[in-house]
Write a structure and sequence with these properties.
This protein is α/β, with parallel strands linked by helices. It contains six helices and seven strands, in the order βαβαββαβααβαβ. Bound molecules: NADP nicotinamide-adenine-dinucleotide phosphate (NAP).
Length: 173
């Protein structure tokens, strides 16, 4: 599995869950995140400022672009025949492809699968799974910075710059 944007909130969780599920993970992040992501279990870490991973000839069963830094067109050659390309923020091109391929029975098909569209029962099960992985030590929360509620504006500014390691937490007194 290839994870692009591996040092952020979604990326650090994705790397750990994939490793726990038995995947061999190649993680892409900026230079500051390399040690963190390796520590989370990635088998290989690529510094995005030193290498453009889309220029590789390797193939992956899953490409997850958390950063929205790639595109399906640029990653297609990285996928195995049954490979899956995942993005957290669908671009107009992805949404168009989803519509265009929705009735396809062969080849790669676009699917929209927002967490918010899952049933309450499914989301409860997801949370129970996350809790179990946390208790077992397989899923470690990575906290960049904790802000008290009074500093919520600063917390938002921190998140919006797009380069945090893990997540930002807001605490209540
Ligand atoms: N967090 C959530 O619960 C959630 C839920 C649904 C959707 N989303 C969406 O998912 C996306 C990621 O969320 P996040 O909370 O994980 O963000 P984040 O914590 O800010 O992480 C962003 C990651 O992208 C990397 N990055 C930034 N520019 C890049 C580039 N040009 N190439 C490769 N990597 C790059 C950053 O690494 P460097 O610091 O090394 O640059 C960082 O690891 C956002 O668009 C968000 O709206 C988030």
């Amino acid at each position: 599995m290839l994870v692009v944007g591996a040092s952020g909130c979604v990326g650090t969780a994705a790397v750990q869950i994939a490793v726990h599920a038995g995947a061999r993970v190649t993680a892409v992040c900026g230079p500051r995140g390399v040690d963190l992501v390796r520590d989370l279990g990635a088998a290989e870490v690529v510094d995005r400022t030193a290498e453009d991973v889309t220029a590789r000839r390797d193939r992956y069963d899953v490409v997850l672009d958390v950063a929205g830094a790639s595109s399906y067109r640029r990653c297609r050659h990285l996928l195995t025949d049954d490979g899956v390309y995942l993005v957290t923020v669908p671009s107009p091109a992805i949404l168009w492809r989803t519509l265009w391929t929705s009735r396809r029975t062969r080849g790669r098909r676009g699917v929209v699968a927002f967490t918010g569209l899952r049933s309450e029962a499914q989301k409860s099960e997801d949370l129970r799974t996350a809790l179990r992985l946390g208790v077992e030590g397989a899923l470690r929360p990575v906290v960049d910075t904790a802000y008290p509620l009074e500093e919520i504006a600063a917390a938002h500014r921190h998140v919006e710059h797009g380069h945090k390691a893990g997540t930002v937490v807001v605490t209540f007194a």
